[in-house]
Amino acid sequence: MSPAPARTTGRGRLPGDLKPRDLLARVVRVDHAGEFGAQRIYSGQIAKLQKSEKRPLLEHMAGQEQEHLEAFEEELRRRHVRPTLLHPLWKLAGYALGAGTALLGERAAMACTVAVETVIDNHYQQQLDVLGDDEAALKARIEKFQAEELEHRDIGLENEAELTPAYELLSALIRTSTRAVIWVAERV
Asked: Global pTM?
């Protein structure tokens, strides 16, 4: 029995689907934007929770997000892909989300993490499903980052995110906003 043929990115494309180069540009652009936004969220939370016992956890997660951001900055350069044109907006919006949830309290900050990371887990999985074996290095990075994002989600849950007043409403708003930002960042 012969080995299965390697699955390449874009294999099985239908008319109207993105070409592999365009798909890869979209993946790198949106992931860069997302990691930049995550960095800004944690910056806002850390600024507002200076004296919190949760600060070391936030700094740990921010450090991992910085590593992710640097990796996608490298991918942008290597692949000659421009960042999203809405980068300045993400700078403000990410910080506002982080600071705003932190002002609601430690649990709300953790609820923000849980909501965002839940969406990012699904987003990264969708990317892994369409990337082929020809993008093994990019897939390995995304898999590593996905595992770290799930760690962040679990940290949020372990730190009582779900006890936030109006948790379901806050979480739904943040998840919906995160999905919208992903959609826009892929295209603009």
From this structure: 0.90
